[in-house]
Specification:
single chain, mainly alpha, Nucleotidyltransferase, domain 5
Length: 102
């Protein structure tokens, strides 16, 4: 799961927080662990640069998953990027800080 970071779109903070709460509860009830990665940690893991732009990350996801085009909407690409990050780092959680603002 991507850690919340709101620099520009503060208006969506409440609805995103509510959705994350529901997901956390659902995972907890199912006995599943939840791991959070900050945006910078996801970018670092995928692209090798913590300040990579969104298009670089999306293109990496497309190429890595052998997709014909970049996933849409952007939220889908972000979720896939977090999943790929976790797959890369699941055995080394100490390498990726859980709270990375950017």
């Amino acid at each position: 799961m991507e850690a919340l970071y709101f620099a520009k779109n503060v208006t969506s903070a409440l609805s995103v927080s509510e959705a994350k709460g529901v997901l956390r509860l659902t995972c907890r009830l199912a006995g599943l662990a939840v791991v959070e990665y900050g945006p910078g940690a996801i970018k670092q893991s995928l692209v090798g640069q913590g300040r990579a732009d969104k298009t670089q990350v999306q293109e990496f996801v497309r190429m890595f998953l052998r997709l014909p085009e970049v996933p849409r909407p952007d939220h889908a690409a972000d979720a896939l990027a977090a999943a790929v990050c976790h797959a890369h780092n699941r055995w080394f959680p100490e390498r990726i800080p859980a709270t990375d603002p950017g």
